[in-house]
Design a protein that fits this description.
It is a single chain. The chain has 206 residues and is mainly α. The chain has one domain (2-202). Helix content is 57%, strand content 3%. The chain has a two-stranded antiparallel sheet with strand order 1-2. It starts with a helix and ends with a strand.
Length: 206
């Protein structure tokens, strides 16, 4: 869900000038992102850089043995959101970071309403709850102006995941979604539904 998000943030970085071209690009953005950039126009460039960084780091983690390799509801997904928020808080502060995370999730709901795929999956309520929870954990891992290195934050988030402090969506070994009782959820029953019976669990399942 980050690719389109990062792409649209590209336009935020030059909105301070509000040229005719930039204004046209701005008006094409989702309403949550428009609201965010209007309220935080001078933090957009840092947000863009950090969002790109978070995606790159998560992509690297996905290909390592440090987490489960699951970027859609799994530990890598949880990592991406928590690391993103931690880095944002370091650079632009807690309030701006939190509101940007909420704007992203509001856009995901609009994506669901339009039935558009994000990372190959239509967003749903449980993934939004997961993201918001993990955003909050990420925000708690640092402070604005903290000198903690990027590498230090990476391992701080990974440790939190291994300690079960974040949330992931319950799946079986084949990657099929499960209810909290462990029953397999068919893809057909999930199609087109914002609310479903997927299950959030701690990030260190046994």
């Amino acid at each position: 869900m980050f690719n389109r998000f990062i792409y649209s943030l590209f336009f935020f970085t030059s909105l301070a000038t509000f040229s005719q071209s930039n204004w046209q690009k701005f008006t094409s953005l989702s309403s949550p992102k428009k609201t965010w950039v209007i309220l935080h126009p001078f933090k957009a460039e840092k947000a863009l850089l950090i969002s790109s960084e978070a995606k790159q780091v998560a992509d690297s983690i996905k290909n390592s043995p440090l987490l489960d390799g699951d970027a859609s509801g799994g530990q890598v997904d949880a990592f991406r959101h928590a690391f993103w928020m931690a880095r944002l808080r370091q650079e632009i502060g807690e309030s701006a970071a939190r509101s940007l995370g909420k704007a992203h999730e509001k856009e995901n709901y609009q994506t669901y309403k339009k039935r558009k795929l994000e990372d190959g999956v239509v967003p749903d309520e449980i993934s939004t709850l997961m993201d918001l929870f993990n955003n909050d954990v990420g925000l708690s891992l640092t402070r604005k102006g903290s000198k903690t290195s990027t590498q230090g934050l990476i391992y701080r988030v990974i440790n939190a995941i291994h300690q079960g402090k974040l949330k992931i969506i319950k799946k079986d070994a084949k990657g099929q979604f499960l209810t909290c009782e462990g029953a397999v959820i068919s893809n057909e029953s999930l199609a087109g539904k914002w609310k479903n019976n997927k299950c959030l669990i701690d990030s260190n399942p046994k």
